[in-house]
Design a protein that fits this description.
The chain is an alpha+beta fold. The protein contains three helices and eight strands, in the order H-E-E-E-E-H-E-E-E-H-E.
Amino acid sequence: MPTRYLRALPKRLTAWLAGSRRKRRSREEGLDLTRLAFSKRWLVSAGADLKFRAVAFMPYRRDGREPELSVFRIDGLTDRRVWEHVREHARRPGRNLHGRADFRLEELEGGDLRLVLDETPPRHGNVVGWPGDKDGQLAAAQELAAIARASRPPKAGVAR
């Protein structure tokens, strides 16, 4: 192989890696997302209807980074497969899973929220782009709570 190809390889490899990372970390439009509830206090039952409280969608700030909200992508999965994926990848020792809320970021009116995928665990991502003040964050969380479709885990004991 000619040496000019070998010298160009690191540049090509670097460009390819940078491009794939940019795609992976960009805003994903049209993806179905789910937020998991490990606290009963996040849920409100009104007869047969189940809703999430806005507090379930409040972002958290980890290690001085920007506020983020942990979610899973559920696009292309059946309801049963979503619960299986959650059982396999979203365990919290000593905590039971009480429900999930499905939504799409594109359903929000305005706002700068976007999804950053990290795939650790698989299909995991964080919603970022939250307002800097608590009032703005609460307003966005209330809007997410209003559009989310909540459901309880199946009776088979997926929460373990």
